[in-house]
Every structure is written in structure tokens, then in C-alpha cells.
Write a structure and sequence with these properties.
By secondary structure, the protein is mostly beta strands. The chain is built from no helices and 12 strands. It has strands spanning about 1-15, 25-45, 50-75, 75-100, 105-120, 125, 155-170, 175-190, 190, 205, 210-220, 225-240. The strands form 2 sheets. Strands 1, 2, 3, 4, 5, 6, 7, 8, 11 and 12 form a 10-stranded antiparallel beta sheet that branches. Strands 9-10 form a two-stranded antiparallel ribbon. About 5% of the residues are buried. The model has no long low-confidence stretch (mean pLDDT about 90).
Length: about 240
């Protein structure tokens, strides 16, 4: 049995003068706070006179924080960015069976649920040279002014769940040379646009992305294991919902 626990926190403030001029033409400020926790449990074992090596596990991850981005243009000061909160959990299993002393088969399966939440906090702060002919603000029909929202102050959520398999067939020709063929599915959850202009009535989002990956390769250890050479050809096909 194995337990892996991790915790990380990060706070930072950054400033970037994009234009390089003595006048304040384009300046960005980044205020970042982040905290995350993860926990993984693994149960490992063998069976069938050690010909089968297996692992079962569970994984949990959560994070929250903020990324506030004040943008200072010579014509307008806008606060962009917002607050985020995510969590993900998964259960998985994998086994490697030695069909012969040289040929082995590995099969794995993982189920994952992923949830991301985002609260945009984006609004007009100041117009150094006075009102601008901006597009109408969502919900008002009037040109945007100080205090008007670039995006509604409403939390949005995206969810994804997926069952992802993996299979690998490996053949060890001798103690130094092994070839393999593998196939796996994977995915990453969707998300939201962090910084936006012009104003919009809803928060733009992107869907989860999926990948089908296959590879054919070899691994070689020679000269009393002082030389290692690995090679592979692979194909990864990406799709979205």
C-alpha cells in the first residue's frame, strides 16, 4: 500500500511595461494566489506465481485561487481576471501479465471526473483621457463607463468525465533489447477565457479535448548498460466534443 500526499501554495505580484516608452501606454499587472492539494492511494501486488503485477488506485485533486489582471492602457484602465476553483478525482487499475518469459501484456483503465469553476471580475476602472466611443455594455445598451462590467459577475462551471484505456504489448528479445506496441486514450478538461475585450454578455469557454495515441518503439541497453538508445514512431489524434 502506498499513499502520496501533496500540498502547494503560491502568491505573487508581477508588473510588465509592454511598450517600453517613458509614457504609460500599455502596462499589465498580475496578482496571483494559488493553493492546491492532492491525495493518491495505491494498492500493489502480484498473482499467478508473480507472472501478474497489478496496481489499483484512487486520486483526488483540488485547487482554488485568484488571478487578477489590471490592464493600464493610455486610453482606459480595465481590471480583468477572476477567481477559480477546480477539483478532480479518478480511480484506476493496471496489470502486466507475462505471457511468456519474453512476451508481456499490460492493460490499464482509468475513470476521471473533472470540474472547473470560474468567476470573472472584469470591469472598467478609469478613462485617463475621458469617455471613449466604446461598444454598448451587455445588459445596458449604453456605451461602457467606469464601473461597468466587461463580463457578468457570474460563476461559470464546466464538467467532464471520461473512461480512458491503455494497452501495451512488449517483447524482450534478450536482456538488452525490447520492442513494444502501445495504445492509449487521454483527455484534458475544458476551461474559460481569462482576459477578454470587447465586453461580452457571457463568459467564453472551450470544451474538453481528447486524444487517441499509438506508438511502436524499442529500448536498447548495451555495452554493459553504459549505452542506452530509445526510439519510437507515434501518432496522436486530437478531437473535441
Amino acid at each position: 500500500f502506498k499513499s502520496i500526499t501533496a500540498f502547494r501554495t503560491f502568491d505573487g505580484e508581477f508588473f510588465n511595461d509592454n511598450d517600453g516608452a517613458p509614457q504609460p501606454v500599455s502596462q499589465l499587472i498580475d496578482i496571483f494566489e494559488h493553493e492546491q492539494f492532492s491525495q493518491e492511494f495505491q494498492l500493489l501486488g502480484t498473482a499467478f506465481e508473480d507472472r501478474l503485477k497489478w496496481i489499483l488506485g484512487a486520486y483526488y485533486f483540488e485547487e482554488d485561487g485568484k488571478n487578477i489582471n489590471p490592464v493600464r492602457f493610455s486610453q482606459a484602465h480595465i481590471q480583468s481576471g477572476g477567481y477559480f476553483d477546480s477539483d478532480s478525482w479518478a480511480i484506476f487499475g493496471q496489470g502486466t501479465y507475462e505471457i511468456t518469459d519474453k512476451l508481456s501484456l499490460t492493460i490499464g483503465l482509468r475513470y476521471t471526473e473533472d470540474t472547473k469553476r470560474y468567476l470573472p471580475d472584469q470591469f472598467f476602472e478609469f478613462f485617463p483621457i475621458g469617455p471613449l466611443p466604446l461598444p454598448p455594455c451587455p445588459g445596458t445598451g449604453l456605451p461602457c463607463g467606469v464601473g461597468d462590467r466587461v463580463l457578468p459577475y457570474v460563476e461559470e462551471t464546466t464538467d467532464a468525465e471520461e473512461l480512458t484505456p491503455m494497452v501495451n504489448l512488449a517483447y524482450r528479445w534478450n536482456n538488452s533489447f525490447m520492442t513494444y506496441l502501445t495504445y492509449s486514450d487521454g483527455f484534458q478538461g475544458g476551461g474559460f477565457t481569462q482576459r477578454l475585450f470587447p465586453p461580452d454578455a457571457s463568459l467564453p469557454a472551450f470544451d474538453p479535448e481528447f486524444v487517441q495515441s499509438s506508438a511502436l518503439g524499442f529500448k536498447y541497453d548495451g555495452w554493459s548498460y553504459t549505452l542506452r538508445r530509445n526510439g519510437a514512431v507515434f501518432c496522436a489524434e486530437y478531437t473535441a466534443i
